[in-house]
């Protein structure tokens, strides 16, 4: 498991998104990505670094402004306004795209996510951690394309990965044939979504616990090394991070259905009616998730709702 | 009203803190400071600037790391742990200082304020806007000492000013003599606290409204120029900012009573019993404010509680 800057790895690695379209299971994917995210996010956050090192690193990555600006626009703004760049399955989703632009509560929520994306230097994030930025074999997982990296909110990476797995899930009905209903594969995707968050949560808090005596500047051991307080602080941190991640996951899903850049998972469904049906379910789910994200207390609750929507 | 870098202005300007100790009223103070804060904070935030300009400016001010690190330590950490630098009115406040270090809910809250201070580049803040950084005459107000400036949470500046006015209020009983009970002056301080927030709120939202068609990247007019939504977004923004400001105000008060650097308002009360009494009231109020800040919906509610504590 490593982050590499090269666009292509030697075969037999393939882009994860293509594997998800083909219906291939990757038994170590959740574990590998949880490991990648927990390490990169923990060690670059103020849970582990000093404010001095943090500020130096934040400044270093502020140079990456063009990529950040682009992401900010295409993810948090374009889908919510009339834009020549937006597109969707036409005419099927015309009404859906219009409703989105008129949904005040949704626009209220996405504004808060955008502010967090632009203002909060929580950790060094990959910045584009979707399933097209990951190359896989049965037992290897490689994260590529780090050119969007900057200091931002951790939930943006976690949400990118979870949201793209959710899009892959919603696309599966478009790939189902008489010989292969994709039911088992859909179950595997949901299991991977659950395992990713649960393993991330476990590994991240384990790193935090292991480093409690040489911690960063956010929670000094002299103040926070007391079991009840430690528990209180960690629960709050992880709950907020969970809700941030769900928010960013939903924003990523929405922008891939009505924004400028779509995903192959849905685009490769050639029957427009079938594609629109998958997209509408994904879009409605994402809208609900953005608005209601703070009500979820576990990832299992999220996957349960997905199952209700699709089964 | 201007920000200047010089330490001393020509007489008759005096440091506001000294004026507050002497019991001098400054009828334009609230208006001037509200003007200063609304302008500096609005124009340097993403409500007015582009993400490109914002990131460039954030990077520029990341160099100011030593000052930020110092503030982070003395405001958000030292008072909550055993530190050779901490001091307080001894032995009167021994127990109070100890209770503070054992108050888990308070330490939970101050951690969130510290994270916001270190991570959130909301606007270019003065970074040390207490009553010792302001020079005044009857009709002139000059902000000095901008060497702490960096991109941080707006509430840190607003809270610094309000928190120091509150300290000045709690110190007044220590200055009362038979000939002068300071009752009217206490009323004037509370009125100034109220007016500062209310005028800031008014001026800040007015700037936001005036600029709605050439807004920054946070709330694009194409998405948010709709009366109900505009109202929803502004109310949320100003409510969060109000609660952030109260949180930072309380942190600033606490650190001036049990931390390394105290304020002349309280220090100049020579009778230790009297001083300890004033300090304990201020400390208890500040602890309540940090924990309960999200329950307050107006600054008038805050000043009412202060009056109950002291009268």
Automatic annotation (TrEMBL), chains A, B:
<dbReference type="InterPro" id="IPR011009">
    <property type="entry name" value="Kinase-like_dom_sf"/>
</dbReference>
<dbReference type="GO" id="GO:0005524">
    <property type="term" value="F:ATP binding"/>
</dbReference>
<keyword id="KW-0067">ATP-binding</keyword>
<dbReference type="GO" id="GO:0009086">
    <property type="term" value="P:methionine biosynthetic process"/>
</dbReference>
<keyword id="KW-0418">Kinase</keyword>
<dbReference type="InterPro" id="IPR009212">
    <property type="entry name" value="Methylthioribose_kinase"/>
</dbReference>
<comment type="similarity">
    <text>Belongs to the methylthioribose kinase family.</text>
</comment>
<feature type="domain" description="Aminoglycoside phosphotransferase">
    <location>
        <begin position="75"/>
        <end position="164"/>
    </location>
</feature>
<dbReference type="Pfam" id="PF01636">
    <property type="entry name" value="APH"/>
</dbReference>
<keyword id="KW-0808">Transferase</keyword>
<keyword id="KW-0547">Nucleotide-binding</keyword>
<protein>
    <recommendedName>
        <fullName>S-methyl-5-thioribose kinase</fullName>
        <ecNumber>2.7.1.100</ecNumber>
    </recommendedName>
</protein>
<dbReference type="GO" id="GO:0046522">
    <property type="term" value="F:S-methyl-5-thioribose kinase activity"/>
</dbReference>
<dbReference type="InterPro" id="IPR002575">
    <property type="entry name" value="Aminoglycoside_PTrfase"/>
</dbReference>
<comment type="subunit">
    <text>Homodimer.</text>
</comment>
